[in-house]
Amino acid sequence: MYHRQPAGGSSALIRFGAMQEFEGKVAVVTGAASGIGLAMASRFASEGMRVVLADVEAPALDAAVTRLRQQEHEVLGVVTDVSSESAVEALAQQTLDAYGGVHILCNNAGVGGGFTTAIWESSLKDWQWTMGVNLWGVVHGVHTFLPIMLEQDEPGHIVNTASSAGLMPGNRIYGVTKHAVVALTEALWDGLIQRESKLRCSVLCPGVINTQIMFSARNRPEELQDVPGAPASDAELDRRARIKHLAETSGMSPEDAANIVFNAIRDERARERLICSFELDRTEPEWSLGFRFDIVLGGRDATALEEPHDD
Question: Which one of the listed residues 16, 129, 145, 174 is annotated catalytic?
Answer without folding.
Answer: 174
